[in-house]
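This part of the workshop introduces the protein records we will be handling. A learned vocabulary of local backbone shapes supplies the integers on the structure line. Getting from the letters to the tokens is the skill we practise here. As an example, a complete record with its sequence and its structure tokens follows.
=====
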Amino acid sequence: MARTGPTSTARRTLLWLAAIIIACTVAVGGGVLAGAVNWAPKLGLDLEGGTQMILAPKIDGKDSISAEQLDQAVSIIRQRVDGSGVSEAQITTEGGKNVVVSMAGKPTDEERNLIKASANMNFRPVIVASQGPAGATPVAGRTPADKLPVPTAAPLNASDPNWIDAAVMKDFEATSCVPPLTERPTTSDPAKPLVSCEPGSGIKYILGPVEIPGKWIKNATYGLKPGANGATTNEWSVQLTLEKPEGAAAFKAVTQRLYSKYMANPNDPQARFAIVLDDSIVSAPASQAVISDGQSSITGQFTEASAKALADQLKFGSLPISFGIQSEIQISATLGLQQLEMGLLAGLIGLLLVVIYSLFQYRALGLVTIFSLVIAGLLTYLAILLLGWTENYRLTLAGVAGIIVAIGQTADSFIVYFERVRDELRDGRGLIAAVENGWARAKRTILASKAVNILASLVLYFVSVGSVKGFAFTLGLTAVADLIVVFMFTHPMLQLLARTKFFGEGHHFSGLDPVQLGAIPLYRGAGRFRTPEESVEVAKGKNARAAGEAERRQTIAERRLAAKEKQMVGSRGAGAAKSESSDDSKEIN
């Protein structure tokens, strides 16, 4: 078996890096051709402007809302806006009752509906489902309006048809779920039945009282449904998790009742459980199993978008009060392009200073730093474009600041590595051995440093709000890009350069000249190795450099104290010498 050497490994790593860059570029290019993304990143509210919506509460006869309700509403609306992929939207209050939502760009209908979908969410069992207006032809398994049951006794459970009294029946007959639609109230008594429509389908329902309130929803996600053999199917589903123990226990009792009806007749409307938001039915799936652990899967004719929308509505819960969009206006950028240009100028100045330092300190080796920074910047830029396309990420001025700060942190990684290599050269090793030994020592330091950077970015991102999140996000993103570049470009490139004549023989302008670094080789040629005296000289040189570095790092007070001690030692030495001289004189006399 052929042995893989460092050279082939380095070349293979560089090819993988090139493949990653090409794949990202092709992906962005495909998005540009499809009109879904541009080669310029999306800008945030502070740089591009956007839309401001004022949400007014629907108080329903109350004179005012409490500060606690308003704060809770702001928190949930912020979760909904952030969950929809909108980057760094600003959510504030106005006048002690209105909520102001400012977001970059123009919101889609889905985002707008998600923001104002603010009534209590709950689960109600289906009693009757009918297609179209009263007397219309029923859909299989659904009851026409003229066949509604008549109450005969007190209802036994929330699915019992005895909940339907004359008032409910009248409301049902008067409601139209097909154009022209009947305007319906957005709030109802959770302890009473409800007549409601399923938007888009024209199906009209009579629902029983609330059995599962929305506050018991712990989490909701969406994805492709797994098949019986564990393989992924092409059917989208929503996975729902309820709080334990009360949510799980109540859900088990409800699904036991509905599942028995489903087993008797899969088309029975009373086997369904409606998810109700704003007294409008979001979905009404059938209960096809008894759910005892609070973990359920909602399936149906979902698309990816509709499954995500339902999961978001379930996940972010419901507001304590209902809101409506009072006004929606376009707003200009809060900072503008001039501030962006100044920020980019500051970044270019910082980058230029790093380039000058690298060339001055490391000469030709500094070119590796420059190309590493270029590749790190390219990876970060492509990542921002892809995130803007897939996650609606927008670059703010705070995000630009995070990228600028990351330039110095990225350069630190290269400096640590190069200095380790130069230390190995000073010890007398050849360049190839110095590169491998220096990398073994440097990568631990680099990994520890970047782990701290990423951890700090994560903590800052999750505990902050607004533009600070943008700073934390780009700081963490550039740290990841830095690791990729150091491991997949800088080290492999140095492995290849070490085998070239220019760097391998330590050219004067290579930055790796052993003579300039003060190195004495271990092997002097013709069977000669470094003598003990030469080893002592190397150690002295190291100690002198260490002492010089320590002296440069002393504070003013430390330097004064050292000078004073030196003067005292000198005085004591002079006194001792004088005394000895006097004693000698006495002996001579």
Remarks:
- The domain at 336-504 is CATH 1.20.1640.10 (Multidrug efflux transporter AcrB transmembrane fold).
